[in-house]
Amino acid sequence: MALRPLSAAALALFVALGAAACAPADEDTSTSASASSSSSAEACAAGALPTLKSGTLTIGTDKPAYEPWFSGDDPTNGKGYESAVAYAVAEKLGYAKDKVSWVTVPFNSAIAPGKKSFDFDVNQVSISDERKNAVDFSSGYYDVRQAIIALKSSPAAKAKSVADLKGYKIGAQVGTTSLDVVQNVIKPTAKPSIYQKNDLAKAALKNGQVDAIVVDLPTAFYITGAEITDAAVVGQFENTVGTPEQFGLVLDKGSALTSCVTSATTALSKDGTFAKIEQQWLSEATNAPVLK
Amino acid sequence: MTSYVKSERQLARERYRRSRAIRSAGIAGASSVVVAVAVVVGILSSPGWPRVRETFFSWEAARASFPSIIEGLWLNVRLLVVCGVLILAFGMVLALMRTLRGPVFFPLRALATGYTDLFRGLPLIITLLLCIFGIPALRLTGVTNDPIYLGGFALVLTYSAYVAEVFRAGIESVHPSQRAAARSLGLNWRRTMRFVVLPQAVRRVVPPLLNDMVSLSKDTGLVSIGGAVDAVYAAQIYSGKTFNFTSYVIAGLLFILLTIPLTRLTDWVTSRMNRRQSQGGVV
Question: Which residue ranges does the record assign to the Solute-binding protein family 3/N-terminal domain (chain A) (predicted)?
Answer without folding.
Answer: 56-285
